[in-house]
Amino acid sequence: MYKLIFVDDEDIVREGISSRIPWGDNGFDLVGTFDNGIAALEYIQNHEIDVVLSDISMPRMDGLTLSGKIADTHPRIQVLLLTGFEEFQYAREAVHHRVKEFLLKPITADELRAVLERTRKELDRLRSAEKEQEHLQELLERSLPLLRERFFYSLASGRLTVNDINRRREFLGWKDKEGCYQIVIASLPDNWEEITRLTLTEKTRGFISEYDVVFSNRNEALVILLQGDNGENLDKRSRNISEQLFSTALSLSDSPVTIGIGETVEKPEDVNRSYLGAGNAIDHARVLGFTMIQSINEVRKKNRVSQEAFISRARHLVKALREGVRHTAQQALDDVFRLFEESYLTSTDVVGYLARLQYHLSDFIDEMGIGENSEFENLSLTAEPRRFTRLADARRYFTEQINRIEENVRKRREHAVLSRIDKARSLINQRFADKSFSLQNICTELYLSTSQFSALFKEGTGQTFVEYLTEIRINEAKRLLKSTDMKSYEIADSVGYQDPRYFSSLFKKITGFTTTEYRKELEN
Predict the structure, then answer these.
(1) pLDDT digit string (tens) for 435-490?
(2) Band of residue 60 on the pLDDT scale cut at 50, 70, 90
(3) pLDDT band at 56 (very low <50, low <70, confident <90, very high)
(4) Is residue 290 over pLDDT 70?
(5) E strands of 172-307, at which residues?
(6) Do 80 and 34 form a contact (C-beta atoms < 8 A)?
(7) What is the edge-to-edge ordering of all strands in the sheet holding 293-295?
(8) Cα-flanking dihedrals φ and ψ of residue 293, to 5°?
(9) Closest by alpha carbon to 361, among 314, 291, 412?
(10) Torsion angle, CA of 169/172/178/182, rounded to 10 degrees?
(11) Does the reported pTM lie above 0.70?
């Protein structure tokens, strides 16, 4: 219900409008009548009012002055002005006071009702828009931490243009010093509990400045974007923060973290370079088998090209094995050895690189669960590389290992497909009577997308999920028709159909009989 006051210096007009309009029924409560603008304005200042209906010509304060003051102090109030014919052109000049309606005297009750109806609809629209805006603002405030997280991850990942950064910087409240930037990444152990990760994140926020930001990447590593006035001081601060972070992590768990420090950059759009450097520093530390603080600048000093190039090629080899595309892994292995052949390497370097390559392969074997096969029992991280005095011998050895790995991965995947199809059948047989049981349910159980599951299930059974489920349900319905006196709608409910009519239609479509006909056929 909206609140309205009426202002007019003529008693007969106030009484007429007060009595001839069905206040309350039309969506408005007439909460006050006044004979001048000053009294009305005093009331407005102390009460919540939605609409003011006022005459223009009044003593002490006229309607135009009143509407102007309302526009300045209470812009949400709708003002409707009554005016005589000779005043009408002058009243139109009050548009800048945001007056909503000008009503020409004399006005009939029907005309005023129509105006009030339009005003009510406008107020309804405005109130709905305000609620929607409040709802959107609430959603935005709740979503702001997630939006900031995504922004900084996108910034670090190099997916934002300069315009994107400038446009979102102020909106998301990023305090950009516009100096230097540096990324620190802490790779956390897989066995850490969520509470441990959150604790480390909060403690990290305690020893960084208000200009620094902590967020997570897709690998659930802890990422810190640091800012400083110059690169040298920022490098020192990054090292100090990394040491604090490493020490804090050790106080939380026996499993230490690996920390990578990227290079300093001078533009926000170059933060991705620092992020990639920090990630490469972590990868380098992992290849060495250490948990430590590793700066990308230190890695590049050791062997700027060969270190990173090798890591990239080794990861590409593992990726090729994981994807299982024929010959791709062999090509990736050729790329690794081509790097060796084109680089200057001492015998010690060769042993080190081969050991690291073997480490990647062993890690992949463990990941795929094929390490228990006896043919891999001699795949040692330390002994095998020392046998090779020539790269050609090493290439032959690793080619054989790649072939064996690919064959075992292929067999394991085939077994996994069959195992999942068997589990799918079992789940359907167990839950076919559940009315809420769906394709999405079974995909969630098997950790597959709907498209992956549908393709595998069709290949393994020759039927779609719906066809197989329907067959199970109809067969159970046949059994119940044969062995019980249950009614059709009871059977429909028992085999998983909520709609008995749909079940009856489906039963006849598949069997050629209605449930009654089928039961009679059995009796005959």
Answers:
(1) 888 889 888 888 788 887 888 888 778 889 889 989 999 999 899 988 998 998 89
(2) confident
(3) confident
(4) no
(5) 180-187, 213-216, 222-228, 258-261, 293-295
(6) no
(7) 213-216, 222-228, 180-187, 258-261, 293-295
(8) -100, 120
(9) 314
(10) -110
(11) no
| DSSP state, residue 265 | B
Architecture of domain 2-107: 3-Layer(aba) Sandwich (3.40)
The pairing of beta strand 222-228 with beta strand 213-216: antiparallel
Contact 84, 57 (CB under 8 A): yes
Distance (Å, whole) CA 471 – CA 510: 9
Q: Could you give the CA distance from residue 2 to residue 29 in angstroms, rounded to a whole number? A: 6
**Cα–Cα distance list, 229 to 180, 210, 225, 237, 516 (Å):** 6, 14, 14, 11, 86
pLDDT at 260 over 80: yes
Q: Is the pLDDT of residue 144 over 60?
A: yes
- Picking from 300, 291, 210, 233, the residue whose alpha carbon sits closest to that of residue 262 is 300
pLDDT confidence tier of residue 172, bands split at 50, 70 and 90: confident
CA angle 435, 440, 441 (to 5 degrees): 60
Name the region of 158 (left: φ>0; alpha: ψ -120 to 50; beta: rest).
Answer: left
Question: Which run of H or E residues covers position 32?
Answer: strand 28-34
State which amino acid sits at residue 180: C
- Per domain, the residue ranges of the chain are 2-107, 148-291, 303-412, 432-524
Q: Taking the CB of residue 320, how many other CB atoms lie within 10 A of it?
A: 20
Q: Which residue has the higher pLDDT, 60 or 51?
A: 51
Mean pLDDT computed over 245-253? 91
Which fold would CATH assign to domain 148-291? Answer: Alpha-Beta Plaits (3.30.70)
Integer Cα distance of 116 and 108 in angstroms:
12
SS (H, E, C) 129-176: HHHHHHHHHHHHHHHHHHHHHHHHHHHHHCCCCHHHHHHHHHHCCCCC
Cis upstream peptide for 500 (omega within 30°): no
CATH number of 432-524: 1.10.10.60
Question: Measured between alpha carbons, how far apart are the two ends of the chain, in Å?
Answer: 72
Choose between 228 and 365: higher pLDDT: 228
- Rounded CA separation 187/383 (Å): 29
3-state SS class at 226: strand
Name the DSSP letter for residue 56. S
Ramachandran angles phi, psi of 47, nearest 5°: -140, 155
- Count of beta carbons in the 10 Å neighbourhood of residue 46: 7
Q: How far is CA 328 from the centre of its chain?
A: 33
**Strands 51-55 vs 78-83: parallel, antiparallel or unpaired:** parallel
Structure tokens at 491: 């059977």
Give the tens place of pLDDT for each residue, 369-416. 766 554 554 444 344 556 665 667 778 888 888 888 888 777 776 666
Contact between 495 and 481 under an 8 Å Cβ cutoff? The reply is: no
